[in-house]
Design brief:
296 residues; 17 helices; single chain; mainly alpha; cell adhesion; Leucine-rich Repeat Variant; PKP2 protein
């Protein structure tokens, strides 16, 4: 577990180690089957897999990268790398979202296991069944790592989490835990998932009211609460930016007074949460059909 956080070279060596990833997955599967999701070794295994999934898309060996991206030949090489936030990148993102992964292998080996639907389902199972904060955080964090970026792999993983494995109810529960790091990671995962335009309505229906519920009534004090609040605002931005229906959902959930309160930063110090809330307000105002409802 310590070695898996030793940087890119360490991750590369461990991913290439014959049988290591397979053994970790095998152990976790056994623990879940034996109804022992809370043991320390399971936590260690999940934390290792979490670390090995960090920057996976960027650090993949050339042979894997070619097989994953062979579907992208038709995409123009003139496209700029899309940012994770902003309207200009939307068209490029949508192109990536239509780019399928190669067929999943029924028996993945090594690195292939890291983004396979089997392991995605294991993470979601641990999120639902484990009561160990580190295990929950590492499972959420691994999914967050796998859904970061704008290539076909993150979007395929996002689709598996939301539509194929019905993962949103388990993630939604994590929004209401008292452990700040678990909550922060759950929100960061939802922020990644919400960038996928084809999943936005599903996510809004399942978790938008919960995101509003965990928004604070004022600018949060601690750094971790500030980051979590900023991530919630950016997730809500993604969900409401091109959907008047979802913006109305935010309104009916009582979100507007909270967003306004968070946007009002009196301390004159740069605040991530206040800035994110302001961006969200600006975007919400673009739905002109809701102006009367907002004013009320």
């Amino acid at each position: 577990r310590n070695m898996s956080s030793a940087g890119p070279e360490g991750r590369k060596k461990m991913r290439e180690c014959d049988g290591l990833i397979d053994s970790l997955v095998y152990y976790i599967q056994g623990a879940i089957a034996d109804h022992e999701p809370n043991d320390k070794a399971t936590e260690n295994c999940v934390c290792i897999l979490h670390n090995l999934s960090y920057q996976l898309e960027i650090e993949l060996p050339e042979s894997y990268a070619q097989s994953i991206y062979m579907q992208r030949r038709n995409i123009s090489s003139n496209d700029k790398t899309p940012g994770c936030f902003g309207t200009r990148s939307r068209k490029v993102k949508e192109k990536h979202q239509d780019t399928p992964l190669p067929e999943e292998k029924s028996n993945p080996k090594g690195v292939e296991s890291l983004w396979h639907s089997t392991l995605i389902r294991i993470y979601l199972s641990l999120i639902a069944k484990s009561t160990r904060n580190y295990t929950q955080e590492a499972s959420l964090g691994a999914l967050q790592n796998l859904t970061a970026g704008t290539g076909p792999m993150p979007f395929a993983v996002a689709r598996t989490v939301v539509q194929k494995a019905n993962g949103l109810p388990s993630i939604r529960t994590m929004l209401h835990v008292s452990h700040p790091a678990v909550k922060k990671t759950a929100v960061s995962l939802l922020r990644n998932l919400s960038r996928n335009t084809s999943l936005q309505n599903d996510i809004a229906r399942e978790v938008l009211p919960d995101l509003v519920a965990v928004l604070p009534e004022s600018v949060p004090g601690s750094d971790i609460a500030c980051e979590t609040t900023a991530s919630i605002c950016y997730t809500l931005y993604n969900l409401t930016q091109s959907s008047s229906h979802n913006a109305r959902l935010l309104l009916s959930a009582g979100g507007l007074p909270k967003v306004i309160a968070v946007s009002m930063n009196d301390s004159h110090v740069f605040n991530k949460a206040s800035r994110a809330a302001s961006v969200l307000l600006y975007s919400l105002w673009s739905h002109t059909d809701l102006h009367n409802a907002y004013k009320k």
